[in-house]
Each structure stands twice: as C-alpha cells, then as structure tokens.
Write a structure and sequence with these properties.
By secondary structure, this protein is of the alpha/beta class. The protein folds into three domains: about 160 residues, HAD superfamily/HAD-like (Rossmann fold, 3-Layer(aba) Sandwich), CATH 3.40.50; about 140 residues, no CATH class; about 130 residues. Helix content is about 45%, strand content about 15%. It has 16 helices and 21 strands. The strands form five sheets. Strands 1-20-17-16-3-11-12-15-13-14 form a ten-stranded mixed sheet, sandwiched between helices. A five-stranded antiparallel sheet has the order 8-7-6-5-9. The protein has a two-stranded antiparallel sheet with strand order 2-21. α1 crosses α3, α3 runs antiparallel to α4 and α11 runs parallel beside α14. The site of magnesium ion (MG) has 7 residues, from loops.
Amino acid sequence: MTLNMDQLPKLPSPQHGIYCNRTLNLRTIRAIGYDMDYTLIHYNVYEWEKRAYKYLKLKLEEQGIPVDGLEFDPNLTMQGLLIDLELGNLIKANRFGFIVHAFHGTKALDFETQRKNYARVLVDLSDDRYVFLNTLFSLSESCMYTQLVDRLDDRQLPEGMGYSDLYRLVRENINYAHMEGQLKQEILNDPDTFVMLDEGTPKALMDQKLAGKKLLLITNSEWEYTHPMMTYTFDRFLPENTTWRDLFDLVIVSARKPNFFSDSLPVYEIVEENGLLKPVFGELKQAGVYHGGCASLIESHFNLTGAEFLYVGDHIFSDVHVSKKVLRWRTGLVVRELEDELIALENFHEKQVKLSNLMEEKSELERKYNLVRLELLRLQKGGQTESDASEEELLLLRDQLRAEFEALDAFIAPLAIESNSLMNENWGLLMRAGKDKSQFARQVEHHSDIYMSRVSNFLEHTPFAMMRSPRSSLPHDLTTYPDSINR
Ligand SMILES: [Mg+2]
C-alpha cells in the first residue's frame, strides 16, 4: 500500500492528546521508565474501589461500628479532594488553596456556613489538618468517612469520638497492605472483571523500543503479581514468540517508590522460576528482573542522568513529584479521568459558549449600572457630575439596568450549575474548581512535564515528538489575545 501525505492520520482527538506543562523533546529522552498499576495496566476503578469499600465495611462491622445500609457511592467523592479533619468536611480547593466547595457528611454546606468556616482558610497540603485524596483507596475511604460523619453527628458512634478520630479509625481499617493483597488475589483470579485492556499501550512501547529508547518497568507491585498481570495485558498484543519481557531493558519490582527515587536501597536479583531473591554482585544484567534497588543504580547502569530519563506514572507524589524533585528526571503523569473529562467538556461546549456570552453581557450591564450609580451619588452629594441627567432620570436608568442584569441570572444559573456538575454531580471536574484550576490541576502543573489520559496516547505522537507547552495565559491576555480564553 502506498502512503501519501493526505492519508497520514489527522491530529489525535483531545482525549488522546498528550498535554505539556514544560516543553519536552522526546528525541532527547534516552530511557523511559513506566509504573505498572494504573499506568501500563488500567483497572476498572469502580470495581476496585467497590471491593475495597466492601472489605472496609466488613472490618468496621466486626468492631461494632454501625455501617448497616451504607453503600459505595462514587458521586460522594473524587480524587483530588481533601478531608478537613478538624471539621469533618470533604472540601475542594482551587489552585490558590481557597475552598470553593464543601460537604459535611453527605450534605453540601450552604453558602453562609462555608463562608463562616473557610473565609480565612487557605489549604496547605503539608498541614496535618488535611488529607489529600490521591492514593489507591481514596474513594472507598473518603466515601465511608463522609457517610460515617453523618452517623457520628447522630451520636451513633462511640461517645467522645471526634472527626479526626473517625478518620483514623477508617484509615486503620483500610489496612492498606492486607487489602491490596486481597484485591490483587481477586484480580489475578478474575482479571476480565477488573482490567481494561488497551492494545495501543504495547504498540506504543514497541515503537519507542524501535526508536532506540531503553524501556524500564519500575513498579511497587511484587513479582508474583507483576508477571502474570503483564503477561495478561501485554502478550496477546505482541508479535508471535515475543512476550512483555522482550520490551523491557530492566524490570524492577517491589520498588518502594517514592524512596526508590531518593534513597540508596539494596537490590536483589529475582530467580524467575521460583521468585526467590539472590544478592547482586557487580553489574545489573540486560533485561534482568530485580527486587528493590534505587534510581542512582539505574542511572549508572545505563550511564544516563537527569533529563535523559522520562518517568511515567499515575501517582503525583510517589511517581512524578519525587523523581523530578530529587533526580530532575522528566516526568509524565497518567490522569485516567482526563479522557471522560475532555468528552464531557466537548459535549458541554455549546452551552459553555452561551454561558460565557451571558456572563460577558452581565458584566457589561453591571459596569453601566455602577457608572449610573456613581453619577447619582455625585448628584446627591454635590460632587462633580459627568452629565446633565436629573435625579429621576438616573434613578430610572439605574433600576432598568439592575432589572436587566438580574433577569440574566435566570439564564445563567442553570448553565453554571450544569457546568459545575460535569463528571461528578456533587464535585464537578477533577481539573477545574469553578472557572479556575483546581488544586489537583495545580499539582499536576507543578510536578509533571507532560500529562495524558493513557500511555497509548504516545502511539499517535510518535517517539520523536517535540511536545511544546502552550503560551500560558494571564488575565490581561483576554484583551490582547482573546483566543487564549479558558486556558
Ligand atoms: Mg500506579
């Protein structure tokens, strides 16, 4: 088949895009490391969290906590929110740390209560008062917590228990390692239920390998889980007689990220037949499988440093924050929710244009209203007026303008409500807090050079892509670059 310019694929759709915070030239990247869970392998989040919630509920029930009738409700919470341990609230903050939305238990705080509680509060993620929801069992944990806040307020929980005690109770019962082990066993027994296959991921990695990149798998999962899961998700899409092992120049399991990036930890070779560990003497082997170790070992093994590495993972802190901060590796974040978020925004586009136009119209009416009000004040208080209008005329005009912009609210309000409940009826979009960027988006911007909804998005961008960050916007750009609106 011949291929001419017109037959080449068009620009990928927005949900398959790779988005750039800091310009990244893939040609200068010599090695790409990948996390496995929720990066190379995608799980059905709802199934995973529903199971975690079920285990959590059982554990709490054993201790006499009244959890009867509670069900996992994904609309009650989402990634990127915070738990305020002092007040027992779930909160969403914008990029400055201002709280834009809050729930106490399963009910939204009314405007006045929210203002009273948070008008002087700026969220600092390092403050013990807050728990940032960005870990594996965040959804099940925060859903249970917020449901139990209702029961704590109803005095159904032990006497003397406060909101932070309740959080500790829920957290302890999540028993991370145990539950993860149990869930992973369920996934191994029935991967079809939990795993979402993506043919594009192994294909993208094959291209990167052909282009001479060294590929690394660096996962916190154990070998007993990693091997069968990579076999299940990758081998079916690879050429005959090859396996996922042929793709990687090095495999690190039980990596203990984020310490993997910052500390000097011992490394062991895995005896593949039985999973036993043996000490490493001398150099690491090409395509070997190792347990533990650390990033500096990898850098010296490949004789590469800093910006020659790109590490791609889904966890803001463990995967991209530390690797960038300590090693200055280039970083890519997988934000799975972005795909649905972009589809929701696309579907809402027409209404968004309508909303923006209405808001512009309202601002202009408000501006004129204020001018008339000022003129009236000057007239009444003996100031210098700009016109010859009488007090009656100004009063009439003022009331007309006010009636006009207030009438617009009837059209604006339903659109604004809809815009704030895209993706999640209670919390809206992950990357937005009202019109502004969310605190989660701020973290993404800070720590990841690029971000995408899935690794297979690399496929259409090729291993040679020059990824340029867009011109960033400032409020005054609206006057000189009106097209840069909403970035
Ligand atoms: Mg992961």
